[in-house]
Design a protein that fits this description.
- With about 400 residues, this protein is of the alpha/beta class.
- It contains 18 helices and 13 strands.
- A six-stranded mixed beta sheet has the order 8-9-10-11-13-12, sandwiched between helices. Strands 2-3-4-1-5 form a five-stranded parallel beta sheet, with helices on both faces. A two-stranded antiparallel ribbon has the order 6-7.
- It is globular, with a radius of gyration of 22 Å.
- The chain starts with 6 loop residues before the first helix and ends in a 6-residue tail after the last helix.
């Protein structure tokens, strides 16, 4: 088993709270991690029809069979069980420990906030980070192989091609979950919509255009995109916004949690195809945003990530805020970094420096697809492997 960096935080949370809720995408390794860290606890999965029916029909009896707690997998199938669990935790033995897993984020957050406020720690497990794969000696050494393959755990513990596994993943989980939540009847249109969303990774979200291209309404596009976010397929990166005497965009940017899934949905079937693809820069930017986000959630920290864009097109791909410290990060997929690659981070740093509420310390970083690290004026050119290994929480 590849060591997960969230393990320590998961154990710590279980010592501090009677309930730990572990969310994340399907097939990100939640069950494997929970059973490894809490090997002494009994395990039940609500994916099992029999266990799910019992949890729905007789929640008190279901929980009574676990007097000292247990691991309950895919809790979103019986959200009402959380209300009964609240009473069990309040009246039961203090030694009892409960670990709940789920893969539908918004539903989980709503149920936990309503039923388990103050009793549960909420943690997120992403697919492998590149750093975890490096530590395990399993990381692809080629940039385009790494981006094309992605980081879902089954691709690293089974002898299966990414195209075969990701195709099954889309059909089995993405489309199935959507049918359960929205009761989508026109599956072909939804499949087109998902592919269009993949083609917009690393770009501003335009729901009207997305809906028009997919042949659906603006409101339908909004609802379907929200479901993809709920299932940890993609996320919206919010724009940095503050009164700086400039008009800044208020439109979020779209990113996927996994670039392997993006490549599959775009029909990119080999690393060589990705290297020549017109969206290779956007895929690289998404990979970087996802890796920085993973570095936060692995530490159990809520990411404070934004991007900068003004009306003149001045843009920095990622602003990583850590208290009073901000890192301005630009993604360049090429292996060669020219001096003009630093222009955006330098100009935005100057703008933030004039803001009385700005960060007292601002790092300027250009992450690139090569292997050379160097300093240009006060900015740093950081190779992609070093960016993945960087502690983005450190000032």
């Amino acid at each position: 088993m590849i060591y997960r960096r969230l393990s320590g935080k998961l154990s710590e949370a279980a010592r501090q709270f009677p309930i730990v809720v572990l969310t994340g995408p399907r097939q990100s390794g939640k069950t494997t991690l929970a059973r490894a860290v809490f090997a002494d606890l009994p395990y039940l999965s609500l994916e099992s029809p029999a266990d799910r029916r019992r949890a729905l029909d007789d929640p008190r009896g279901f929980l009574a069979d676990l007097p000292l707690g247990g691991i309950i997998d895919e809790i979103q199938h019986a959200p009402d069980l959380l209300s009964y669990l609240q009473g069990v935790v309040d009246l039961g033995p203090r030694a009892a420990r409960w670990v709940l897993t789920g893969s539908q984020n918004l539903m989980m957050l709503r149920s936990v906030s309503q039923s388990l406020a103050g009793r549960a720690a909420l943690l997120e497990l992403s697919p492998f980070s590149y750093r975890e794969l490096v530590d395990a000696g399993r990381a692809p050494s080629d940039l385009w192989e790494a981006l094309w393959r992605g980081c879902y755990p089954p691709l690293y513990d089974r002898d299966v091609s990414p195209a075969d596994w990701l195709g099954s993943y889309v059909a089995t989980y993405v489309e199935r979950d959507v049918r359960q939540i929205l009761n989508v009847t026109d599956l072909a249109t939804f499949q087109t919509f998902v592919a269009l969303v993949a083609g917009r990774t690393g770009q501003l979200v335009n729901l009207s255009q997305l809906g028009s291209d997919a042949g659906i309404s603006h409101n339908t596009a909004r609802g379907w995109l929200s479901v993809l976010e709920t299932g940890f397929i993609c996320f919206r990166l919010q724009p940095f916004f503050r009164n700086l005497g400039k008009r800044l965009t208020k439109t979020p940017k779209l990113h996927f949690f996994d670039t392997g899934l993006v490549c599959y949905l775009l029909g990119i079937r080999t690393p060589a195809e990705l290297k020549q693809h017109p969206l290779r820069g956007a895929v690289f930017e998404t990979w970087l945003a996802s890796e920085v986000r993973k570095s936060h959630v692995e530490a159990g920290v809520r990411p404070d990530l934004t991007f900068f864009r003004d009306q003149h097109g001045l843009e920095v791909d990622l602003l990583v805020r850590n208290g009073a410290h901000t890192a301005l990060v630009e993604a360049k997929s090429g292996a060669t970094v020219a001096p003009d690659a630093f222009e955006s981070v330098e100009r935005v740093a100057e703008i933030l420096g004039r803001d009385p509420l700005g960060a007292p310390k601002t790092d300027k970083i250009v992450v690139h697809g090569g292997a050379e690290r160097f300093t240009f004026r006060e900015a740093v050119a950081l190779p992609w492997r070093e960016a993945a290994a960087k502690d983005w929480l450190a000032p």
